[in-house]
């Protein structure tokens, strides 16, 4: 073998290593998995727990209540705790001088398995008063835990999510293959885009633009359906319906600063998606209105869609083992309650009935030993309740100058308010029932002791 050939073979591995290193440099910086602790530092434990609870898509009012209960359990009720969507402030009046420590919240949402593990860790800390350093170390392990499913199954999960939501939102015969293809494309874009720092910043715009362009140029001439209703299910991971609903809950609960900031973020997210759709339609040209209505599937289609959504969540969000049946349970209860609400109070207020029923039902199921944490079931149920797709379609229609867009937007915010009120009432009812149950058991135990 010649000397030049030997040098070429040595250079190839080096080139591959440099290429991999260059690609790794494009990945966004992540928070260190090692969390600093100061021994028996209760404020540090509460701050780290608060950031993880916020990353589990919990409202600031709920996180603040949880942290205050933990502080009282650890005999530090004097701590003053303030929770905002992006940070936690804890004031320790016993320090000399009094100090306020700020803990930033990680903006990357936790997977379902991580959210469930955080909830179990909080429950264990409350019942066993686990040492703070052990709790902080447990949070570090949860954050660094890799996903159970690889890239292929993650994309498959996103495809099932798209198909399932499509069958719930717009179940037409010709749209089904479109949902499958778009789900695979967007799932791949999300998987790759989240690993490149610059692209991840504009990923909603790029994805919405790409999908709209594909639909307008390649699919729309063959599938005579509304472009926006074909696009919306494939953008399910970008739709800020859950964010907007939590914002409404926080505003309803009196958390004005947290609710207002989260509301602005959700609207901005919708605006980015709308801009991507508008840019795609501008490049491809405004599609003509469908001449004939597409053939709708039967009333069974949304139920099949819910089953597909449960499988999609299980794979895409890496849900814990043996949680699939419980995710399906939460989705079925949420959708059934919405159907009941539609019959009783109409479509705009059906979310109130849905939230009012699903929260106690999930809380009750969460008390069973075989059930996963309530955070997992409630997160999936909220995704089915929230009308994020309605807001996206309304804003996109408004950008395109479609008649009736304003009415769609107003109905969306009316539905958000109804869902928020239902969530607040449902959570309050659950707490009251559990308090009455605990009081009954204490009184019964006291009678037995006296006897």
Question: What brief labels describe this structure?
Answer:
single chain; 451 residues; mainly alpha; 3-stranded antiparallel beta sheet; 3 strands; globular
Cα(first) to Cα(last) distance is: 97 Å
Helix amount, in percent?
Answer: 55-70%
Task: Name the quaternary structure.
Answer: single chain
Overall shape: globular
Strand content: under 5%
Structural class by helix and strand composition:
mainly alpha
Number of helices, where a helix is a run of at least 4 consecutive DSSP H or I residues:
18
Molecular structure report:
- With 451 residues, the protein is mainly alpha-helical.
- It has 18 helices and three strands.
- It has a three-stranded antiparallel sheet with strand order 1-2-3.
- It is globular.
- The chain starts with a helix and ends with a helix.
- Residues 6-12, 31-40 and 388-401 have low confidence and may be disordered.
In brief, what are we looking at here?
This protein is mainly α and 451 residues long.
Topology, element by element:
Blueprint: H1 3-26, H2 42-55, H3 60-73, E1 80-84, E2 87-92, E3 99-104, H4 112-128, H5 132-144, H6 151-169, H7 175-193, H8 197-201, H9 203-219, H10 227-231, H11 241-252, H12 256-284, H13 301-316, H14 324-345, H15 350-366, H16 374-385, H17 388-399, H18 405-450
Antiparallel strand pairs: 1-2, 2-3
């Amino acid at each position: 073998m010649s000397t030049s050939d030997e040098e070429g073979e040595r250079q190839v591995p080096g080139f591959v290593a440099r290429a991999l290193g260059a690609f790794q440099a494009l990945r966004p910086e992540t928070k260190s998995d090692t969390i600093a602790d100061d021994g028996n530092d209760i404020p540090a434990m509460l701050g780290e727990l608060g950031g993880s609870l916020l990353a589990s898509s919990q409202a600031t009012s709920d996180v603040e209540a949880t942290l205050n209960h933990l502080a009282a359990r650890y005999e530090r009720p004097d701590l003053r705790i303030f929770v905002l969507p992006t940070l936690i402030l804890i004031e320790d009046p016993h320090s000399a001088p009094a100090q306020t420590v700020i803990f930033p919240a990680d903006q990357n949402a936790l997977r379902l398995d991580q959210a469930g593990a955080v909830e179990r860790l909080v429950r264990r800390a409350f019942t066993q008063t686990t040492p703070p350093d052990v709790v902080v170390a447990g949070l570090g392990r949860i954050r660094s835990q890799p996903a159970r499913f690889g890239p292929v199954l993650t994309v498959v999960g996103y495809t099932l999510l798209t198909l399932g939501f499509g069958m719930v939102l717009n179940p037409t015969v010709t749209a089904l293959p479109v949902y499958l293809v778009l789900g695979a494309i967007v799932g791949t874009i999300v998987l790759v885009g989240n690993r490149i720092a610059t692209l991840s910043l504009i990923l909603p715009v790029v994805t919405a633009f790409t999908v709209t362009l594909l639909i307008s140029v390649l699919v729309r001439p063959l599938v005579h359906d509304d472009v926006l209703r074909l696009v919306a299910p494939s953008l399910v991971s970008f739709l800020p319906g859950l964010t907007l609903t939590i914002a409404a809950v926080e505003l309803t609960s009196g958390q004005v600063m947290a609710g207002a900031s989260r509301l602005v973020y959700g609207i901005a997210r919708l605006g980015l998606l709308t801009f991507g759709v508008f840019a795609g339609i501008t490049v491809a040209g405004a599609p003509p209105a469908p001449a004939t209505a597409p053939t709708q599937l039967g009333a069974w289609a949304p139920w099949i869609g819910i089953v597909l959504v449960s499988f999609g969540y299980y794979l895409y969000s890496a849900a814990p083992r043996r949680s699939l049946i419980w995710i399906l349970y939460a989705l079925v209860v949420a959708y059934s309650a919405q159907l009941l609400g539609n019959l009783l109070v109409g479509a705009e207020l059906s979310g109130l009935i849905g939230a009012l029923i699903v929260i106690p039902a999930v809380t009750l199921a969460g008390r069973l030993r075989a059930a996963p944490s309530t955070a997992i079931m409630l997160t999936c149920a909220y995704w089915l309740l929230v009308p994020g797709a309605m807001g996206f379609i309304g804003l996109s229609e408004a950008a395109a100058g479609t008649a009736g867009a304003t009415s769609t937007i107003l109905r969306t915010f009316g539905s958000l308010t109804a869902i928020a009120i239902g969530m607040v009432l449902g959570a309050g009812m659950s707490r009251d029932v559990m308090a009455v149950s605990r009081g009954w058991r204490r009184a019964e135990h006291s009678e037995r002791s006296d006897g």
